[in-house]
Amino acid sequence: MRPEKTKTAEVNYDVLVKAWVSRLGRSVTVEALPGDASTRRYYRVRTRTASFILMKMQPFEDSGNDLTFIQVQKHLSKLGINVPQIVDVDDKSGVILLSDLGDETLLKRLERVSKKRDQLVWFKRAIDLVLNMQVVATQRSAPIDAYGLYFDEEKLMWEVRFALAHFYGGTLARKIPNKEERRVQNYFESICKQLASQEWYFTHRDYHSRNIMVVDQDLYMIDFQDARMGCAQYDLASLLRDSYYQLEEEVVYELVDYYIRQRDKMEGTKTGRKEFVRIFDLMAIQRNFKAIGSFASFYAKRGDARYLKFIGNTFENIRRNLLRFPELDELRCLLFRYYYF
Prior knowledge:
Strand content: 5-15%
Helix content: 40-55%
CATH class of the largest domain: Alpha Beta
Low-confidence stretches: 1-13
Shape: globular
Number of helices: 11
Largest sheet: 5 strands, antiparallel
Structural class: alpha+beta
CATH topology of the largest domain: Aminoglycoside 3'-phosphotransferase, Chain: A, domain 2
Number of domains: 2
C-alpha cells in the first residue's frame, strides 16, 4: 500500500472498483493512489463521514480466509500490533476495504528531519514496533501459513539466484562465466547457511521506511502479507540498511545496540553483541542483494523502472558490509566486477 497523493486530479479506476464503491452511497469520492511494487491497486474512498483505503487485487475465494494478507492482519491485530483494520471484504470482486492511515510514510517524515536526535526517535519507534511484533507473535503462534514458512537456506539461496538472473543476466545483460558464478553462489551458500541456523522469529519480511505509516506520533506497519519465520536480524537489516534511506554508519550500530537492549529487556536474556552484529551484517548483504533482484525483476517483467534508481544505494550497502568480512573479499570483487563496467 502506498497512500500518497496522486499528481493528477483525474481518477482512472476500473469498472469493478466503481461498481463496488457505488454501494456505499451517492456521496462517495474515489481517488486513485500510486501503486507499490506489487500488482495490487489502491484507492482512497471518502464518504460524508469517513475515509478508507480500498485495495484491489484478483478475485479470491472463501471470503479471504486463505488470503495471507487477511490471515496476518487478523493475527497481528489480535496481538495488539499497529496494522490497518479490515472494514469489509468482497472476495468475488477482489476488494479489501481498510482503515485509512493517511499519506505520511516514515520515509516522508524523515524528509523533514534535520537533527540526529529526531532521526533516532523515529527509528527507535520503528524498532519498538517491529520488535514487539517479533517477540509477541513468536511467542503466540496461530494456525496461519506464515508459521509454516521459513527463511531457510533454500529460500535465502533462491533469492540470491533470482538476483543473479534478473539483475546481472537481465537488467545489466552481463554473462558471468560459469566458474565465477559458481564461486559467487558458494560464498552466498555459506552466508545463507549461517543465517538459516539462527533462532526463528516471526518476521514482517519487507519492513522499511515506505512500509511504515506515521499517524500522529504512532507508527503502523503495512504490506505484511509475506510474513514468515526468519532470524531476528532480518527485519532489522531491512529497516537500517534501507534501499530508500541511508543512515550514517555510526547511527546504524547505535540503533542495533538499542534493539539488543530492548529485546533483552523483553525476553530476559543477555545477547552477545559481537555475534549478533556479525549476523546482522551478513543478513544485510543477503537482504540487499535480494532487493536488487526484486528491483530488476519489476523492470524486466512489468517495465516498471521506478525502482532502478535505488540499486546504487543498495549496492553501496552491500559494499560497506562486505568490507567488514576479509574472508568475503573475492565475493565483493566478483559482484562489483560485473556491476562496474
